Amino acid sequence: MIAGRRILAVVPARGGSQRLIGKNARLMAGRPMVAWTLDAARGSVLIDHLVVSTDDPAVAAVASGMGWPPPFLRPGHLSGPAASVIDAVEHALEQVGGRWDYVVLLQPTSPLRTAEDIDRAIRLCDETGAPAVIGVSPLPKPPAFYGRIDAAGRYRPGGVDPERTVVVNGAIYVGRPDVLLRERTFQCDGALAYPMPFERGWDVDTLAEFTVCEALLSVGSTESR
Fold it and tell me: Which of 116, 115, 112, 141 is nearest to 200 (CA)?
């Protein structure tokens, strides 16, 4: 809570995945992947309440076993590969009820974000009056590595401004519920970026990304860990 403003965190963790089935409950460095996100949320000093939105009994069991409130089981239309995360957030808001000043979306596919990242993003949104804040990471390579392919298939150097180009990493989204439900996106006009180091911005979608994150967690090589 910040000066009386209430903050709800939502962890969307459906069981299906087109590339890595059951990844949210899959063991990563000895723990279910979703547990790393739940631990980061527990370390936040600003989150007032957290809910897990899932259709996966394994994810629900992990959350309950860690002492979180019983997860919200998603209805069928929110469980498929085409399900919108905004619809899942709206469903969570409806189920929780009450007044919330901010919604924080914490996807379990970003296991390296920290409690400090969460609180800094929330404070950025609150202190600036922005409608939303989105976690971003820099491009992984120095400027000399980037180029483009022309119509003839030839490589041409340049074409990207690495100083200004960033990647939405999916680790943290903060938004005001009224704006979020009206615009149906966190990437609304006026949204601010919360820059994160590349090492903490991994988003697990493939086995290779899962393996990298597991290695980073195992050796404790991320910043602030």
Answer: 112
